[in-house]
Amino acid sequence: xxxxxxxxxxxxxxxxxxxxxxxxxxxxxxxxxxxxxxxxxxxxxxxxxxxxxxxxxxxxxxxxxxxxxxxxxxxxxxxxxxxxxxxxxxxxxxxxxxxxxxxxxxxxxxxxxxxxxxxxxxxxxxxxxxxxxxxxxxxxxxxxxxxxxxxxxxxxxxxxxxxxxxxxxxxxxxxxxxxxxxxxxxxxxxxxxxxxxxxxxxxxxxxxxxxxxxxxxxxxxxxxxxxxxxxxxxxxxxxxxxxxxxxxxxxxxxxxxxxxxxxxxxxxxxxxxxxxxxxxxxxxxxxxxxxxxxxxxxxxxxxxxxxxxxxxxxxxxxxxxxxxxxxxxxxxxxxxxxxxxxxxxxxxxxxxxxxxxxxxxx
Length: 362
Hints:
Layout: E1 2-7, E2 17-24, E3 28-32, H1 41-47, E4 51-54, H2 57-66, E5 73-76, H3 77-83, H4 91-99, H5 119-130, H6 132-146, H7 149-161, H8 184-204, H9 208-211, H10 214-223, H11 228-231, H12 240-244, H13 246-257, H14 280-283, H15 285-305, H16 309-312, H17 315-323, H18 331-340, H19 345-361
Parallel strand pairs: 4-5
Antiparallel strand pairs: 1-2, 2-3
């Protein structure tokens, strides 16, 4: 069963599915509007026995789960293409490389909340699932030839058992350009402004960036206006929409400015793991040496197996292991640490020895 979903994240608040595409041999292609049909559990009953074929499954599974669609078997063509060593893994590139077709382009970033959906958009959406099963079959053959079938099975199983993604901690810290804010007071003002924007975006069902761009929030914090009139002097805030909302934005800045020192956010989230890598040489030269050795070994392994380094092992897991290695740092302890960090068995078997050697090198 080929499965896909279209969202409107650049236009609407959240990651809701606004179209679901399904294709199964013998049944053809079906397009479902989940807005008037928010519970598709009856469809789930009909397709639960099938292996679902998706491209970049992690992008679509959360919004599909919201409407009652959850696979029990999975094949991710994007992830399979990575394991197979394909140089480009976007759907169009993989289809062209393996099947010789060129997919229609032009609507991937469209506002899929539009109703009614234009006919050419529906054709575009249908094409996304027309060839997914054929693509899956081609990738199965390649993975089998390369001896990576079990790798793919473990990866797909990990996706199935991972559950819903954890809520993001301090999502306001993802504001683009906030690295230019050095003072905790500025961070407090940005957080307050971000929260005001998020509340308004949620209420109006509009993507936050369309309510107020990240760059405008950062520039407002940096300018630190002392009146609504001063805020309106900033470029983005001169527009009609933001002139109407100037009280909301200025009030948020004032709340952040007036926070007690004890309530101001720290420069970084506590407990986030190792410090930035560029500080390792000063703070722990031995850890820096371990990481350099690990990266060298993983790069060599990546080239040997034609698998991207980040798919051999999570870069975050590598950093954590090299910053705080197990004691004693033998192969069994390293393997246990990798499993605890979410590594699959094929990754453990492939990387355990080189990581053990890297730890010893430090």
